[in-house]
Automatic annotation (TrEMBL):
Residues 13-67 form the HTH cro/C1-type domain. It comes from the Bacteria. Signal peptide: none annotated. InterPro entries: Cro/C1-type_HTH, HTH_RamB, IrrE_HExxH, Lambda_DNA-bd_dom_sf, ScfR_C, TransReg_Diox_bact_type. This is DUF2083 domain-containing protein. PROSITE patterns: HTH_CROC1 (PS50943). SMART domains: HTH_XRE. The keyword Transcription regulation applies.
Length: 465
């Protein structure tokens, strides 16, 4: 008789708990076990029994097959990606050995992945330290908030489920303004001079939601939904943030605002309806905007959140920047290694879309480690609703792993072009491509070779060491 191999689901169980916004204590209460046992399961120090598997599936309404599927293949893939790092270039690493480690030693695999992740973060931190210069600490709350969102792949199950309920209530009431009226809140649109620079303001004394009357339809709907999120989802947002300790209170404020915006988008584009429409329309951002009355940026942002367990869609990353290259928003659900400081790669088309406003640019990208992505970029504008009022134009990029690109309408018929993917780097400090003519500074750890007799097309020539 074949021996039954113990089932270890530590990383998967931990991801599930975080996606549901639960502490170990809360999950332990749900499953009627001790918090220490949850911790042992998450660290792969105890196997998941058949009884526990059924209990997990029943408690969180999951498919047993999805839970029981092993992480070995995922670990093998992730280890293979990590071991392509040039630092391991002189080591013979057969695919069979990598697979054996992943299948037989999930704990060791997780440890190796964490070590490489820590190494990569430290390398990036060194690049940031050199590139950021004086005053870099002023943006630390922003980076802390970004790390919080990235760790959860920008998906918050309690907010999405609550938003679907609210969306149904709002539809039944005849719209957001009618729903607010039932709650005793009146919505009024006032001229900019009366609003004194505010797009949205809540007058608590008179129970009035005041909006700038020059807002376009999607912006007005979003501001109204954001107010509803701040009030109707307040307890849900606080519960998500309560389990974390932040270095700065500013981080908590930024995340409250970000989660309220998340809730607003989830109300305007409810998960079930939006996810189905996204798949049916080939993730056509403009078509989805027409269906849900949302802007290009709102739809692109919402597409990064479609990671509900069992109903996942294409994992996307999102970037928004201005003409100077300053990044004002970034979200990652596709494993794209963003540069925190020092600017991105000028070869990425997101930096070039300003030349042709509102035109969609598509591009295959290849990172130095061989990872390939597909990018969709376009300009978006905000403000300027009235003569003499300044308008801000930014670029947004939405991207996914090359393996997912066939599901996007933008990539259809472009399969052959992947062989001509544009070689880009995360940032010059972390990119070791020696043949890049767009490089601005040499990478960390490489010495510049001095040669008075020759000047190549590249700005720098490096030594082999």
């Amino acid at each position: 008789m074949a021996e039954t191999r113990p089932l270890y689901l530590g990383p998967r169980l931990r991801r599930l708990r975080r996606e549901l916004g639960l502490t170990q204590q809360a999950m332990a209460d749900d499953l009627e076990i001790s918090p220490s046992y949850v911790a042992l399961l998450e660290r792969n120090q105890r196997p998941v029994t058949a009884e526990m598997l059924v209990r997990l599936a029943r408690t969180y309404r999951l498919e047993i097959g999805d839970l029981a599927s092993e992480d070995g293949e995922d670990y093998a893939r992730r280890l293979s990606d990590v071991l392509r790092d040039p630092i391991f270039g002189d080591i013979d690493l057969p695919a069979l050995e990598i697979s054996d480690i992943a299948m037989s030693f999930p704990g060791v695999s997780e440890a190796l992945l964490r070590l490489h992740g820590a190494y990569t973060r430290e390398q990036q931190a060194l690049a940031e330290q050199r590139a950021a210069g004086p005053g870099a600490e002023e943006n630390e709350p922003v980076r802390e908030a970004q790390r919080f969102l990235a760790a959860r792949r920008n998906y918050f199950h309690p907010l999405d489920t609550r938003a679907e309920d609210l969306a149904a209530e709002i539809e039944q009431a005849g719209g957001a303004e009618a729903w607010l009226k039932e709650k005793g809140v009146r919505v009024r649109a006032l001229p900019p001079e009366v609003m004194m620079g505010a797009l949205r303001r809540f007058d608590r004394h008179n129970q009035q939601l005041l909006l700038d009357d020059t807002l376009d339809g999607p912006s007005r709907d979003f501001q109204t939904a954001t107010h509803i999120a701040h009030t109707a989802m307040r307890s849900d947002i606080k519960a998500i943030l309560r389990v974390e300790t932040f270095a700065s209170e500013t981080t908590r404020v930024l995340l409250q605002r970000a989660l309220a915006a998340y809730g607003a988008a989830a109300m305007l584009m409810p998960y079930g309806k939006f996810a189905r429409a996204a798949e049916q329309r080939g993730y056509d951002i403009e078509a989805l905007g027409g269906l849900f009355g949302a802007s290009f940026e709102q739809v692109a942002h919402r597409l990064t959140t479609l990671q509900r367990p069992g109903e996942e869609r294409v994992p996307f990353f999102f970037l928004r920047l201005d003409e100077a290259g300053n990044v004002s928003k970034r979200l990652d659900g596709a494993g794209f290694p963003f540069a925190a400081h020092g600017g991105g790669c000028p070869l990425w088309s997101v930096h070039q879309v300003f030349r042709a406003p509102r035109v969609i640019h598509t591009q295959w990208l290849e990172l130095p480690g061989g990872e390939r992505f597909f990018s969709v970029a376009r300009t978006v504008a905000s403000g300027g609703n009235g003569y003499g009022r300044g308008q801000v134009t930014r670029a947004v990029a939405l991207g996914c792993a090359a393996s997912e690109a066939s599901r996007l309408v933008y990539a259809r018929g472009m399969d052959a072009d992947i062989a001509k993917a544009t070689p880009i780097g995360v940032t010059c400090r972390l990119c070791h491509r020696s043949d890049c003519t767009a490089r601005s500074v040499p990478p960390i750890g490489r010495d510049v070779m001095v040669d008075d007799t020759r000047r190549g097309a590249q700005p720098y020539t490096f030594t082999d060491g």
